[in-house]
Design a protein that fits this description.
With 272 residues, the protein is an alpha/beta fold. It has one domain: TIM Barrel (Alpha-Beta Barrel), CATH 3.20.20.70. It has nine helices and ten strands. The protein has a five-stranded parallel sheet. A hairpin with a 2-residue loop joins strand 1 and strand 2. Helix 3 runs parallel beside helix 4 and helix 7 runs parallel beside helix 9. The protein starts with 9 loop residues before the first strand and ends in a 24-residue tail after the last helix.
Length: 272
């Protein structure tokens, strides 16, 4: 009996996770839908922005559902990944990260330093220095960045043990708009890489996982789906399928048709 190999875990900063999908927690229709989507996807981590939540679990209401959100976080055994969303300066990042470490009681931080409000593109000029300082302060930094190879290499050089390049601008759902750069990035760097932002369909997630990326982070594609719970499951399945395909070793692409049916022993008929 042939059995499928056990999935290899996602390992970030020496910690193993049972899933290659990370899930955001904003923009869902209700806390109950969010909870059901989390249950369906079983993500490795849940992301949350401190700036979008009240600073206390005892607070009355928030845009995500107030106490309902905090109760969900308490009930789940899934690790939290706070992020520095909305920060436009390094000082804002440092302040938000320190507060997030206290509120969420975790050293993990998704570093978002925005340089352009229209595309929400990272501030590539100051991102490396901000990441370096956070690492010195004891954070496990997952930096949101572009697919630029030099930028990503610099982030690794200052101590980032994983990076999070975008596939496309946040919330666009366009999928990978620069496949060449993403694939080159995967070939050149050996650290874990999580595709963050721009994925809109499960097929997008499957594709980047087939290229060898280690995980994907989703929010809008699930939260704004007509059926977020089913979509969460679809993405979870697609991520696993892409990972399995990568590990299996895809056939080499051919430029001409190749017969798939064996011809050995086939009678040869000669026509006059």
């Amino acid at each position: 009996m042939i059995t499928a190999p056990a999935p290899d875990p996602l390992v970030l900063y020496g910690q193993a996770f049972g899933s290659s999908l990370l899930l955001g927690t904003s923009r869902y229709p209700s806390p109950s839908v969010l909870q059901a989507a989390v249950q369906r996807a079983q993500p490795a981590m849940l992301t949350a922005s401190l700036r979008r939540q009240n600073l206390s679990p005892d607070s009355a209401t928030t845009s995500t559902g107030g106490n309902s959100f905090w109760q969900l976080m308490k009930q789940r055994s899934i690790p939290m990944l706070p992020n520095t969303a909305g920060c436009h300066s390094a000082q804002e990042v440092f302040t938000t990260a320190q507060m997030a470490r206290e509120v969420f009681e975790t050293p993990w931080i998704k570093l978002k330093l925005i340089g352009d409000d229209y595309t929400l593109q990272p501030d590539t000029l100051n991102l490396v220095a901000a990441a370096s300082q956070l690492i010195k302060d004891g954070f496990k930094v997952l930096p949101y960045c572009t697919e630029d190879l030099v930028l990503c290499q610099r982030l690794v050089d200052v101590g980032c043990e994983a990076i999070m390049p975008w596939a496309a601008p946040i919330g666009t759902g366009k999928g990978p708009i620069n496949p060449y750069a993403l694939r080159l990035l995967r070939e050149r760097l050996t650290v874990p890489m999580i595709v963050d932002a721009g994925l809109g369909l499960p097929s997008h997630a499957c594709q980047v996982m087939e290229w060898g990326f280690d995980a994907v982070l989703l929010n809008t594609a699930v939260a704004l789906a007509q059926d977020p719970v089913t979509m969460a499951g679809a993405f979870a399945n697609a991520v696993q399928a892409g990972r399995d395909a990568y590990r299996s070793g895809a056939m080499a692409e051919q430029h001409t048709a190749q017969a798939s049916t064996p011809v050995l022993g086939t009678p040869f008929w000669h026509h006059e």
